[in-house]
Write a structure and sequence with these properties.
This protein has about 140 residues and is an alpha+beta fold. It is built from 3 helices and 8 strands, in the order E-H-E-E-E-H-E-H-E-E-E. The mean pLDDT is about 90.
Length: about 140
């Protein structure tokens, strides 16, 4: 166990899909989750056991990571994303530095998204898009 990286919780989990309507239908209609829709990003906050659950279109994930709608062919397409919440922005930056020193390659460095979350992302061995995150609203 790494003693210097202190994860506070799983901040969020989202499936990544090429067909958001079909996936949202499964989670909303079949499973009864009260998903909200914001520009084809279906989500719910405050879910017991997780802070956030979402259905994230692959094009939106690519836009967030690379600034374009297409996922790069040389990086495996993720089918899910999970974010680990850290104490603050400095903790995210320190975790990235430490993991890079250990050889981990990041899809992108720590940066602040338009919605205020600071996050750095990498692909796990299983093909999951992993975020090291600080979302200020989770600490209020």
């Amino acid at each position: 166990m790494n003693e210097s990286i202190k994860i506070e919780c799983i901040a969020g989990f989202a499936v990544i899909t090429k067909d958001p309507a079909a996936s949202a239908s499964l989670y909303r209609d079949a499973l009864g989750l009260p998903l909200e829709n914001h520009d084809d990003y279906f989500f719910m906050d405050g879910f017991p056991g997780a802070k956030h659950f979402g259905v994230w279109p692959l094009a939106m994930a690519a836009q967030s990571c690379f600034g374009r709608d297409e996922w790069p062919e040389d990086i495996p397409e993720p089918t899910a994303t999970m974010e680990f919440e850290l104490a603050d922005v400095a903790a995210v930056e320190a975790a990235v530095r430490e993991m890079k020193e250990q050889g981990r390659m990041f899809v992108h460095e720590a940066r602040t998204e338009p919605w205020g979350q600071t996050v750095a992302r990498f692909i796990s061995p299983e093909g999951v898009l992993i975020g090291l995150s600080y979302a200020p609203w989770l600490h209020e």
